[in-house]
C-alpha cells in the first residue's frame, strides 16, 4: 500500500508499507531521482533497440558491484547493452592518466555511463582519474540524493535532501569560463527544483573564498532565482548550513554549492542518513552527458571477497535510468532495492550485516515484479559475443541427436517447448547407428558429424553404445572429429529444487581434447575462459590443476593460462590445486567465479559443484569447438530404467538448449524459455521423480509451455 508521507514535503517521496505476519515495516521509497536531464517530457524506448551505455567496472570492489548492477538490470529486462572500458596499467599520453582516450570517447559518443569505484596511484605529471573524467568530459554539476531508508537505521528518519555541486575545474583567471560554469550550476539547480516540485533552493558558500572570486557564484544564483519566482531562494554560509543540518534539517531542500563547500556539506548530509553506503550520485556535463557513480571508494580491504555493498552503485544506476527516461524500469529496481533493505535479512558488513554481495543481489532480483525467484541470470550468451542479433525471419538449421534411453522423450520435450516459444529453428535429426561406421570408427555416422560442421550448432540428448575392439566411444568420436576443445557447464542454485546452497553461481570451462596439438588446445581453453569472464562481467578466473600430473607435463595448461591472463589485466587470476579447490567449494563456494579446469580435474570438480546445486540433473552443458561450433548436451546419462516410461526430467536438456540459443544469438527466445523453466521449478507443483516429484515428462513440459 502506497501513502504520501506527512513527514516529507516532496510529493514524489512516498511511504511504502511492507507487511508480513508479525510486523509492519515502514520504508521511504524516494523517487526524487526522476529525470536528471531536467526535461519534463517522459519518453519510452519504443524502437526495441538496446541503448548503448559505457561501463567502467573499475578495480577493488568495482568489478564485483558492477557485476551486481548488470545482473539486476538484466533481470529487470532493461534494454541496455554495455560497452565496457577498463582502467589501463600504463599512462595514456593523450589523457595524462590511466584512463584511455577510447574510454572517454565512448562516454562522449553514448552520452551516458556508469562508473564503479576505481583508483590508481598518482605520480609526476599524472592526472587523477577523478580530474581526468571531470575535465575531459566537461562536467559542470554533480547531483547527490540523501534520503532516509528504513532498515538501515538512519540518524534521522525523514531526511530528503538534494545537493547540486559545482564540478568544473578551477580556472587560472576568473572570467568567462567561471561565469559560464556558475550559471550552468545555478540553472540546473532551479530547473531541478521546479521539475521535482521542490520549494526552496539554498546557495551554500564560503565567505572568505566568495569574496576573493567577486561573489561570482552567488551573483549567478541571484540572477537565476529571479527567473523562478515560485521557488524560494536563500543564501547560507557553510557554517550556518552545518548548524541547520544538525538542528533542523527539514528547513533545507535543494542545496546548490560552490566546489569548496561540497565535501563538508555532503559529509554532514551523509551523517544524517547513516553514511555513504546508500548515497547515489550522478555527474552532468555539457551536451547533457551523464555519468552515474557510487560515492564509496574501492575498499581494497574487501577486494575479491564478495563482501562489497552493491546498493550505492545500484541506486546510481537508477539515477542513470531516469536520465535515460526509462522511468518504469528505474522505479521497479528502486522499489526492489528498498524492499530488500527494509526486510533487513540481507545486509553487507559495512552496515552491520553478514551477507555477501551475491546474497544482496539475489534478494533484489527476487523483489523485481513478475519475475520467478532465481539466484542469478541463469544462462547468458555462451558464444561470448556482446552483440544481440534480432531473430531471423528464416528458420535456422540445427542438428539434433535424439539419442537413446530417455533421449527421445526429453528431445520431444525440447522440440515442443521451442515450438511454443516460436523459436525459428528447423531440426535436422540424426540417429546413432546400429553398426560401426568405418569412417568414424564408432556408431556415429559420418553424415551426422558433417551435419554439425555444416550447421555450426547442435543438441545431443543422452546416448550410449557398448565399445568393441578398435572402436571409439561416442563421446570421443564427437570430441575428436569436431575438435571440441572446451566444455562449459553452469552451476546455479534454483529455488524449488532445494539446493544445498542457495547462492551458487559458478562456471566451469574444462579442457576436452588431448593429443599432439595439446598446446593449442590448452591455449584455446584459457582464451575462452578469460574471454567468457570479460564478456559476462565475471571478475576472476581460477585455474584448477592436478600437481603431480601438471609436473609431468611441464605445466602446459598452467603456462597457457598465465600467458592469457597477462592479456586480461582487469580479471584476477589464480592457480589452485584440485584438492584445495574441493575444500574451498565445501567451505566457501562464493569465493569462486569462473573455473578453468584441466582435463584431469574435471570429474572431481564438476561433481563437487553439482553437489552444491542438487546434482548433475540440473546442470546445463555446451561443448565449444574450433570454427565456433557449439554442441549442447545434457549432463545426465541415458537412464535405461526410465526408457519409454515418460518419467525422465527434461530440464537438463532444456537448459542446455537455452545455452545453444544464446550461442545462436536468439537471446529473447532463450530468456523467455529460461524464465518459464525457472518459474515452473519455483512453483514446485510439476517435478519428476528424480527431484522428489511424481509428474511425468509430458506434465513438466506442458507446465513450462504454459509459463512461456
TrEMBL record:
Superkingdom, natural source: Eukaryota
Keywords for this protein: Oxidoreductase
Pfam families for the chain: Iso_dh (PF00180)
Gene Ontology biological process terms, A to Z: isocitrate metabolic process; tricarboxylic acid cycle
Gene3D superfamilies in UniProt: Isopropylmalate Dehydrogenase
Tagged with keyword Oxidoreductase: yes
Boundaries of every Isopropylmalate dehydrogenase-like domain copy: 52-364, 395-704
Keyword Oxidoreductase assigned: yes
Record-level Gene Ontology MF annotations: isocitrate dehydrogenase (NAD+) activity
Any GO CC annotation of this UniProt entry: mitochondrion
Homology family: Belongs to the isocitrate and isopropylmalate dehydrogenases family.
Name this polypeptide is given: Isopropylmalate dehydrogenase-like domain-containing protein
Amino acid at each position: 500500500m502506497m501513502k504520501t508521507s506527512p513527514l516529507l514535503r516532496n510529493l514524489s517521496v512516498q511511504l511504502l508499507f511492507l507487511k508480513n505476519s508479525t510486523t509492519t515495516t515502514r520504508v521511504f521509497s524516494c523517487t526524487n531521482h526522476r529525470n536528471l536531464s531536467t526535461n519534463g517530457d517522459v519518453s519510452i524506448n519504443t524502437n526495441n533497440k538496446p541503448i548503448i551505455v559505457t561501463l567502467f567496472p573499475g578495480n577493488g570492489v568495482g568489478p564485483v558491484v558492477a557485476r551486481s548492477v548488470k545482473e539486476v538490470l538484466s533481470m529487470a529486462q532493461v534494454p541496455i547493452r554495455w560497452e565496457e572500458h577498463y582502467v589501463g596499467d600504463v599512462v595514456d599520453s593523450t589523457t595524462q592518466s590511466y584512463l584511455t582516450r577510447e574510454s572517454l570517447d565512448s562516454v562522449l559518443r553514448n552520452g551516458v555511463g556508469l562508473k564503479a569505484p576505481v583508483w590508481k596511484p598518482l605520480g609526476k605529471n599524472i592526472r587523477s582519474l577523478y580530474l581526468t573524467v571531470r575535465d575531459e568530459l566537461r562536467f559542470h554539476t554533480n547531483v547527490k540524493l540523501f534520503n532516509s531508508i528504513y532498515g538501515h537505521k538512519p540518524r534521522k528518519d525523514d531526511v530528503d535532501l538534494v545537493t547540486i555541486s559545482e564540478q568544473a575545474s578551477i580556472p587560472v583567471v576568473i572570467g568567462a569560463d567561471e561565469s559560464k560554469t556558475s550559471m550552468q550550476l545555478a540553472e540546473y539547480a532551479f530547473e531541478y527544483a521546479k521539475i521535482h516540485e521542490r520549494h526552496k533552493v539554498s546557495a551554500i558558500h564560503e565567505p572568505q573564498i566568495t569574496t576573493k572570486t567577486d561573489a561570482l557564484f552567488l551573483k549567478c544564483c541571484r540572477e537565476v532565482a529571479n527567473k523562478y519566482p515560485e521557488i524560494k531562494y536563500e543564501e547560507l554560509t557553510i557554517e550556518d548550513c552545518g548548524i541547520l543540518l544538525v538542528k533542523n534539517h527539514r528547513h533545507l531542500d535543494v542545496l546548490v554549492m560552490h566546489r569548496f563547500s561540497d565535501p563538508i556539506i555532503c559529509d554532514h548530509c551523509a551523517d544524517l542518513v547513516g553514511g555513504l553506503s546508500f548515497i547515489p550520485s550522478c555527474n552532468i556535463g555539457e551536451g547533457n552527458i551523464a555519468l552515474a557513480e557510487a560515492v564509496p571508494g574501492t575498499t581494497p580491504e574487501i577486494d575479491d571477497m564478495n563482501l562489497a555493498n552493491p546498493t550505492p552503485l545500484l541506486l546510481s544506476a537508477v539515477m542513470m535510468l531516469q536520465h535515460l527516461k526509462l522511468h518504469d524500469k528505474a522505479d521497479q529496481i528502486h522499489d526492489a532495492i528498498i524492499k530488500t533493505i527494509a526486510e533487513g535479512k540481507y545486509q553487507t558488513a559495512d552496515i552491520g550485516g553478514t551477507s555477501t554481495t551475491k546474497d544482496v543481489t539475489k534478494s533484489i532480483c527476487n523483489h523485481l515484479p513478475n519475475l520467478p525467484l532465481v539466484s542469478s541470470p541463469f544462462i547468458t550468451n555462451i558464444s561470448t559475443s556482446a552483440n544481440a542479433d534480432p531473430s531471423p525471419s528464416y528458420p535456422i538449421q540445427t542438428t539434433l541427436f535424439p539419442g537413446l534411453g530417455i533421449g527421445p522423450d526429453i528431445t520431444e520435450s525440447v522440440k515442443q517447448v521451442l515450438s511454443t516459444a516460436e523459436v525459428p529453428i528447423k531440426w535436422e535429426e540424426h540417429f546413432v547407428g546400429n553398426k560401426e561406421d568405418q569412417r568414424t570408427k564408432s556408431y556415429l555416422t559420418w553424415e551426422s558429424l558433417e551435419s554439425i560442421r555444416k550447421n555450426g550448432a547442435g543438441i545431443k540428448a543422452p546416448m550410449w553404445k557398448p565399445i568393441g575392439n578398435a572402436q571409439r566411444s561416442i563421446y570421443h568420436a564427437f570430441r575428436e572429429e569436431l575438435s571440441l576443445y572446451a566444455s562449459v557447464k553452469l552451476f546455479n542454485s534454483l529455488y524449488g529444487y532445494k539446493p544445498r546452497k542457495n547462492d551458487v553461481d559458478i562456471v566451469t570451462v574444462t579442457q576436452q581434447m588431448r593429443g599432439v596439438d595439446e598446446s593449442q588446445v590448452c591455449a584455446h581453453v584459457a582464451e575462452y575462459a578469460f574471454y567468457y569472464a570479460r564478456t559476462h562481467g565475471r571478475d576472476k578466473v581460477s585455474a584448477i590443476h592436478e600437481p603431480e600430473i601438471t609436473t609431468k607435463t611441464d605445466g602446459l595448461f598452467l603456462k597457457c593460462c598465465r600467458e592469457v591472463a597477462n592479456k586480461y589485466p582487469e580479471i584476477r587470476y589464480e592457480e589452485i590445486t584440485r584438492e584445495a579447490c574441493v575444500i574451498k567449494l565445501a567451505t566457501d563456494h562464493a569465493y569462486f567465479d569462473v573455473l578453468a579446469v584441466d582435463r584431469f580435474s574435471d570429474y572431481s570438480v564438476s561433481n563437487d559443484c553439482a553437489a552444491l546445486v542438487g546434482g548433475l540433473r540440473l546442470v546445463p552443458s555446451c561443448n565449444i569447438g574450433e570454427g565456433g561450433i557449439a554442441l549442447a548436451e545434457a549432463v545426465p546419462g541415458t537412464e535405461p530404467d526410465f526408457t519409454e516410461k515418460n518419467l525422465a526430467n527434461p530440464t537438463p536438456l532444456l537448459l542446455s538448449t537455452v545455452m545453444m540459443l544464446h550461442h545462436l544469438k536468439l537471446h529473447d527466445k532463450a530468456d523467455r524459455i529460461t524464465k518459464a523453466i525457472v518459474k515452473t521449478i519455483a512453483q514446485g507443483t510439476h517435478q519428476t521423480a528424480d527431484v522428489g516429484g511424481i509428474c511425468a515428462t509430458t506434465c513438466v513440459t506442458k507446465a513450462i509451455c504454459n509459463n512461456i
